[in-house]
Write a structure and sequence with these properties.
This protein is mainly β. The protein contains three helices and eleven strands. It comes from Luteimonas endophytica.
């Protein structure tokens, strides 16, 4: 991975799909987004962790669905007319993530991305690849591969059970 003058890896520059969880704005690499759809019912799978809402059948593909608010230990998830499912294609796997709402696609240059701050052992920042700044707004950029790898074993078990 190459680095630019600011020391930020080149992989950070690009376009990010902006979405909200509570009052915070997050971003995920737009190249990983397969589709955006309204949240509809999922088939629950017994013994799955709370953040795994279940599975859906997306045109013949069984897709595990993760509630990102629960996965990131944020306040209790609410489901309303604004709740959205972002279907991601990550490392040849299709996964749905449930978010509060989708904002827009935001292009970020290297100068607009800062490294993840160090919080020590009290805060798990493995899932955060950086902080994007757009005007006065900050965008928490998610490392979706790391996030989904942490749920990997569970998702594979769900796919096998479905």
């Amino acid at each position: 991975m190459n680095e630019n003058k600011s020391g930020t890896p080149d992989a950070f520059a690009g376009e990010f799909l902006s979405f909200t969880l509570g009052d915070e704005h997050y971003g995920v690499d737009i190249l990983k987004v397969q589709e955006i759809r309204g949240y509809d019912s999922v088939t629950r799978v017994p013994d799955a962790p709370d953040y795994i809402k279940g599975v859906i059948n997306l045109r013949g593909t069984i897709v595990p669905v993760i509630d990102l608010r629960l996965k990131l230990h944020l306040a209790e998830a609410r489901y309303d007319s604004f709740t959205v499912m972002i279907v991601l294609n990550v490392e040849e796997r299709v996964v749905g993530i449930v978010v509060d709402g989708v904002s827009d696609v935001i292009p970020l240059s290297h100068d607009q991305v800062r490294p993840t701050p160090e919080f020590g052992a009290a805060v798990d920042t493995r899932f955060i690849s950086g902080i994007g700044t757009v005007d006065e707004r900050m965008l928490i950029l998610l490392d979706i591969e790391t996030l989904l790898d942490s749920a990997d074993l569970v998702a594979e078990e769900l796919e096998a059970a479905a």
